[in-house]
Amino acid sequence: MPQAPLRTRLAVDIGGTFTDVALESADGRRLTTKVLTTPSAPEQGVVEGIGKVLALADLEASAVDLILHGTTLATNALIERKGAKTALITTEGLRDSLEMAYENRFDQYDINIDRPLPLVPRHLRWPVRERSDFRGRVLLPLETDSVEALFPLIESEGIESLAIGLIHAYANPQHEQQVADQISRRFPELALTLSSEVCPEVREYERQSTACANAYVQPLMARYLRELEGQVTAMGFTCPFLLMTSGGGLTDLRTAAKFPIRLVESGPAGGAILASRIATECGLDQVLSYDMGGTTAKICLIDEGKPLTSRTFEVDRAYRFMKGSGLPLRIPVIEMVEIGAGGGSIASVDRLKRIAVGPQSAGADPGPACYGQGGTKPTVTDADVVLGKIDPQSFAGGAVTLQPDSAAQALEAEVGAALGLDGTTSAFGVCELVDENMANAARVHAIEWGKDVASRTMIAFGGAAPLHAARLAEKLGIERIVVPVGAGVGSAIGFLRAPIAYEVVRSRYQILSGFDAAAANDLLAEMAREANEIVRLGAPDEELVETRSAFMRYRGQGHEISVALPPRDLVSADRETLEAAFAEQYSTVYGRTIPGLEVEVLTWTLTVSTEPSVPEAAAKEGESVAAPAPTGQRQVFDPHTSTFLEAGLYRRADLSSGMEVQGPALIVEDQTTTVVPTQFSARINSLGYILLARQATAQEA
Q1: How far apart are CA 616 and CA 1, in angstroms?
Q2: pLDDT surpassing 50 at residue 118
Q3: Beta-bridge mates of residue 126
Q4: 563 neighbors 603 (Cβ within 8 angstroms)
Q5: Please, is 145 exposed, middle or buried when counting C-beta atoms within 10 Å of its C-beta (0-12, 13-18, 19+)?
Q6: Are 403 and 372 in contact (CB under 8 A)?
Q7: How many CA atoms, within 13 angstroms, populate the side-chain half-sphere of residue 659?
């Protein structure tokens, strides 16, 4: 198969503290940069970063063939509850389903349990008279008078966005569309979200929760995307502009503005894609992806080069790590665990005299105390500076000159004074707590999926991950760590590695004993047209791959499993094919089948993507080569001896394939620093990646 021609592509990832930009030119060059995020107007940071990387590449905007973008703005709006004033229109008698949720307790022994508050309070959940059944048959036609009666409420409550979630609208969206048409004629500027469009799947609570979340962030995201599009156009860009989705695919600006909820976790998804590619390049079957930026840390398990994926995701969990304590979103997502522990996470001491870190972050403004921008609260970055892990002169490529004295003063004032500790011990306590929290999150996540952690190789990226990777690996019993090239802007580079793809989901109920191949083919064809329309925007001439599957279960069960569909039109005889494929998959998951029960299909999924490129495999390691002399020395705190040790400073750009560095050492680059403790050695492989190994492992290899 002929390879697609090389194109100049630009990727941008907005984080809570930094905005990362990566550019790959048609001649094979890769250039990256990192600038402070501008929280009040995020597009300004994007424009600054793009201008900076174009200057480094000596390219005009018109030379770029594709822009890829990921952002956490939608996630932050949900967590911080800073979205639009939203109302929900639902079927009469069902206004409380959003608050009743699953009618269970996620922690049955906690008598003071705090349930997540719905985004739409009860007085803004409004019923209309209508009814359809699960097959889409209309039982009660929509009464338009009940819709018109809501017009005064929309005006008096100052509603900015409206979600429409009617019962069984996934099977027949006609009533939702009628409600939307009637309201838009009266309020043409009001943002509308239809559950049958944003989440056309069974399960009422998840569908309404997803529709409300989409409506809640839609005005904010639509304004941001329009503003960004205008700024990019003014810079001279004429190429397609695509956005990363939570499931690792890409979508266009129009679709992203309509369904911004699919952008939740878009940045971390890029990081997981990067880690998957690295795992394949290095021949690693089991990987733990560790992405730590300025605001959060993300951990993802990757097996056989593929990250775990899911169809549901929870945001804003009231109880850390506990399923059921957050707002469920039913969207395609790469499965990972995320905690509020990044470089900018604020450290404090609670009422029980315990050090606490996050989830509050100093962000980019004012930032950590060591930034010298007026911040007085100590952060993880401040602790790293005090412990010697960061060279103040080379941080962020010299764009930010750090002030170690300010970091130490903040730690002593906010942590040390309450606990009777000096600045160094306070910094050590902050870092130990952060690393232990991440280790605990990784353990819990792995156990939930029935996976092992210690046997995996860690892939560390993000501005802060290489600083903490070795200590986290020690806590998890991990022996090897990979720090890729451009680790500090890993998610942005991951965007460049992602295939252009889009997934479409539809719930259409069928019992296999009465399998209707024609109806299934019509549905899949409609889904394929929708996906192709979006993918062709970014890949007009490339060959596309279509993947289809069905979510099936035994009749009467509450959950489904995914079964791959044949890559062709279905025929009546495929009833036996699907039944056999379901039995095989069910047996793989549960170790048995259930004879005599009918099988049913609830949901169909279809993904269209460009053909994934085959990554270059790392060459077999040869003899070690002596590294050049360090460019300097620095005192770095050793957690095992609680003393400062002299560590050599190495520029990553000075290290080539085969060179080996013994710890303690710091390998410095513009966007991050890799800490090599005494117990580890670091070696550069043929792809330029840093391979950290425990000394015993290195000697055995």
Answers
A1: 17
A2: yes
A3: 89
A4: no
A5: exposed
A6: yes
A7: 19
- Alpha helix ranges (H) inside 259-362: 266-281
Q: Kindly report the three-state secondary structure assignment for every residue of 392-449.
A: CCCHHHHCCCCCHHHHHHHHHHHHHHHHCCCHHHHHHHHHHHHHHHHHHHHHHHHHHC
Say how far apart CA 620 and CA 275 lie, in whole Å: 20
Between the CA of residue 521 and those of 226, 351, 492, what are the distances in Å? 37, 61, 37
Measured on CA atoms in the order 442, 34, 359, 42, is the torsion positive or negative? negative
Q: What are the tokens at 563?
A: 């079964």
Q: Which sequence spans correspond to the domains of the chain?
A: 9-78+223-263, 79-222, 501-610, 625-679
- CATH code of 9-78+223-263, in short, is 3.30.420.40
pLDDT digits 0-9 by tens, 619-642:
677 677 878 888 999 999 999 999
Question: Residue 125 CA to chain centroid, in angstroms?
Answer: 30
Question: Is the distance from CB of 621 to CB of 685 less than 8 angstroms?
Answer: yes
Nearest CA among 689, 686, 682 for reference residue 664: 682
Strand partners, 291: 298, 461
Q: Could you tell me the pLDDT band of residue 333, with boundaries at 50, 70 and 90? A: confident
> Distance between CA atoms of 270 and 273, rounded to whole angstroms?
5
Report the C-alpha gap between 46 and 35 in whole angstroms.
8
How many other CB atoms sit within 10 Å of the CB of residue 610? 18
Radius of gyration of the chain measured on its C-alpha atoms? 26
- Pairing relation of β-strands 191-194 and 161-165? parallel
One-letter amino acid at 501 equals A
| Cα 556 from chain centroid (whole Å) | 34
Cβ-contact 379, 362 below 8 angstroms: yes
Q: How many helices (H) and strands (E) does the chain have?
A: 19, 36
Identity of the residue numbered 178: Q
pLDDT tens figures, 65-115: 889 998 878 877 887 788 899 999 999 999 988 888 777 777 777 777 777
Under a CB-based contact definition with an 8 Å cutoff, are residues 323 and 314 in contact? yes
| 6 to 64, 328, 615, 652: CA distances (angstroms) | 11, 40, 14, 27
**pLDDT tens digits, 182-201:** 999 999 999 999 999 998 88
Within 10 angstroms of residue 370's Cβ, the number of other Cβ atoms is: 29
How confident is residue 701, by pLDDT bands cut at 50, 70 and 90? Answer: very low
Please tell me the predicted confidence (pLDDT) of residue 284. Answer: 92
Instruction: Quickly tell me which residue has 């580890």 as its tokens.
Output: 680
- CA–CA–CA angle 186, 190, 195 (5° rounding): 105
Angstrom distance (rounded) from CA 358 to CA 339: 9
- Is the per-residue pLDDT at 667 higher than 50? yes
Q: What are phi and psi of 400, to 5 degrees?
A: -125, 120
Average pLDDT, the chain: 88
Backbone angles phi, psi at 113, to 5 degrees: -60, 140
Contact residues for 474 (Cβ-Cβ < 8 A; gap 6+): 679
**CA of 192: how far to CAs of 149, 211, 331, 452, 486, in Å?**
17, 10, 18, 44, 40
4/540: higher pLDDT: 540
Q: How far apart are CA 672 and CA 49, in angstroms?
A: 17
Sign of CA dihedral 583, 589, 594, 597: negative
CATH of region 501-610, choose from 3.30.1490, 2.40.30, 2.60.40, 3.30.420: 3.30.1490
One-letter amino acid of 140:
L
Which residues have C-beta within 8 Å of that of residue 239, sequence separation ≥ 6? 64, 65, 66, 67
| CA dist., res. 376 & res. 369, Å (int) | 5
| 3-class secondary structure, 45 | helix
